[in-house]
């Protein structure tokens, strides 16, 4: 490996800090307040929920809760946040530890280290895969939004492993379609607390934004279809090493599904992991690693597979688990 050098309704137009007062459309009757605000003003659910929590919203003159159901015709008053400045600039910045697994005319496969995002995003100022590739002189596909050109899938900032980025327009179109049609085989290694029952199974549970915790996700009845397959690889006294295959690719999918089974990824404090166990294992993030990625190459359709070994922090934690068992 070569190191890289160090839904319904149209959004309402708004002005920075604008106060809006209007009735709730009848078509949104019965919807959660945060969801209704998101649809009416073109905001994310997270931003809409934060407005309610911060007291920037009133319904019929009263302070509501984010999960309250709205009534068509109710009078809504909202203090909208300033419009965010579009994220369009990719800053070429070398990233220590990011390596090139494979590169050709159509794609580049990287082994992403912890603490690196796939692409720039509002509020994020850390290193990115796209910025690292730019610093190394790689030309990336111009398809996609300016800040994430060439990005066909993502890994969380705290998740390590193999990730593919399109270099050509052919590569971008073919890979986007393959991910959308679930033709890409995505495999992870995850250490979870306890021992799942059954030891081999499938979690088929819809995922969407967490109703009460901004920035997190959860299994919710009206979420997006999400399917995770898992298989026990090794059992320890306090945890299990699983091989996980994603059928879908929702944000935080493995973390959410394992938490829903009451077996969160070890070290994943945001989703209910035991901080004492994480401390014993020296973990500062979730034990989750994208170790294998397989797909048909855009140029000729041949099956290609790329892998990544466990990074040092996860390997050390695994050895400590074995010693404890």
What do these coordinates show?
With 325 residues, this protein is an alpha+beta fold. It folds into 3 domains: 61 residues, RNA-binding S4 domain (Structural Genomics Hypothetical 15.5 Kd Protein In mrcA-pckA Intergenic Region, Chain A), CATH 3.10.290; 94 residues, Pseudouridine synthase; 144 residues, Pseudouridine synthase. Helix content is 20%, strand content 26%. Strands 1, 5, 6, 7, 8, 9, 12, 13, 14 and 15 form a 10-stranded mixed β-sheet that branches. α1 crosses α2.
Keywords:
alpha+beta, Structural Genomics Hypothetical 15.5 Kd Protein In mrcA-pckA Intergenic Region, Chain A, Pseudouridine synthase, 20% helix
The CATH superfamily of the largest domain turns out to be Pseudouridine synthase
Average pLDDT, all residues = 89
Query: Counting H and I runs of at least 4 residues, what is the number of helices?
Result: 7
Total strands: the figure is 15
Q: How many domains comprise the coordinates?
A: 3
Radius of gyration: 22 Å
Low-confidence residue ranges:
4-16
Which structural class do you get from the secondary structure elements? alpha+beta
Q: CATH topology of the largest domain, anyone?
A: Pseudouridine synthase
What is the CATH domain class of the largest domain? Alpha Beta
Distance between the termini: 34 Å
Q: Which architecture of the largest domain per CATH? A: 2-Layer Sandwich
GO biological process, one term: enzyme-directed rRNA pseudouridine synthesis
InterPro entries: PsdUridine_synth_cat_dom_sf (IPR020103), PsdUridine_synth_RluA-like_CS (IPR006224), PsdUridine_synth_RluC/D (IPR006225), PsdUridine_synth_RsuA/RluA (IPR006145), RluA_PseudoU_synthase (IPR050188), S4_RNA-bd_sf (IPR036986)
Organism: Pseudofrankia inefficax (strain DSM 45817 / CECT 9037 / DDB 130130 / EuI1c)
EC number: 5.4.99.-
